[in-house]
């Protein structure tokens, strides 16, 4: 039996979990950007394929605030220990930073509300192209 994971739901769950950890540990505001992607690179020399590389990436960027003290941190280590480290680092950096009177997340009344238009910016079939197909 194969188990398929919805990549968007997976990233959303990851981001929500990190926001919850930041708030539980003292952040008054928190923003997390979770990203995942596949890269395919083909190098051709004198008409011949010389190198084909495939790579997958997952990363987190965090913006946390303690009052008016703000810090950012990012990582590509989305293991449990990597997440613990980014949460700890962001909160420690908040403690070390100076207050910024202009910091803070936007007021919710200033944000767009659903329904959001479908801008068709994501094509799930792009992730299905493999190196062997790319060089054909």
Task: Please characterize this protein's 3D structure.
The protein is built from three helices and three strands; from the N terminus they run αβββαα. The chain has 136 residues and is of the alpha+beta class. The chain has a three-stranded antiparallel β-sheet with strand order 1-2-3. The longest helix has 18 residues, at 7-24. The protein is elongated. The two termini are 32 Å apart.
Summarize the structure.
The chain has 136 residues and is an alpha+beta fold. The protein has helices spanning 7-24, 80-96, 131-134; strands at residues 29-45, 48-66, 69-75. The model has no long low-confidence stretch (mean pLDDT 88).
Strands side by side in the biggest sheet: 1-2-3
Major sheet size, sense and barrel closure: 3 strands, antiparallel
* Shape field: elongated
C-alpha Rg, in Å?
20 Å
How many beta-strand elements? 3
Uncertain runs: none
Helix coverage percent:
25-40%
Write out key terms for the chains shown.
single chain; 136 residues; alpha+beta; three-stranded antiparallel beta sheet; 3 helices; elongated
């Amino acid at each position: 039996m194969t188990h398929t994971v919805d990549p968007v739901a997976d990233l959303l769950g990851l981001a929500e979990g990190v926001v919850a950890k930041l708030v539980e540990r003292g952040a008054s505001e928190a923003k997390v950007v979770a990203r995942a992607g596949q890269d395919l690179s083909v190098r051709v020399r004198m008409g011949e394929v010389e190198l084909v590389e495939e790579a997958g990436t997952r990363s987190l960027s965090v913006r946390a605030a303690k009052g008016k003290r703000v810090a950012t941190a990012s990582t590509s280590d989305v293991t449990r220990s990597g997440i613990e480290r980014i949460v700890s680092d962001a909160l420690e950096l908040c403690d070390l930073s100076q207050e910024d009177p202009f910091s803070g997340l936007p007021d919710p009344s200033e944000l767009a509300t659903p329904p959001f238009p479908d801008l068709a910016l994501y094509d799930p079939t792009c992730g299905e192209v493999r190196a062997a197909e790319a060089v054909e």
